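(Protein data)
===
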Amino acid sequence: QVQLVESGGGSVQSGGSLRLSCSASGFTFENYAIGWFRQAPGKEREGLLCITRSNKEIVYDASVKGRFTLSRDNAKKMASLQMSSLNSDDTAEYYCAARHSFVCYSNGDVYDFRGQGTQVTVSS
């Protein structure tokens, strides 16, 4: 059974940091590009970053550049999103997605699998 499970969300004060994890099972993780997305209430889904099979990080959202970093550990079948200098605009449901591809995509609709998400709330 394919599963992507996010963890690490929670409440944090503005300026703080969080590390989100995406744990995969049921598929060959190393053959998949992993993307992170977020959606705030009443807003469109945003593609944030993606990491390719060859461990190249691609940033799609300029607002997170320099604050968010994405890494993967194929042996552990896990991808981690390190978030720092958080502000209230970062409050959203965050989720990871996987696509069997050599390249990344900012459009979440083209991914093969998606997790249920984890809530991040930043208070000022």
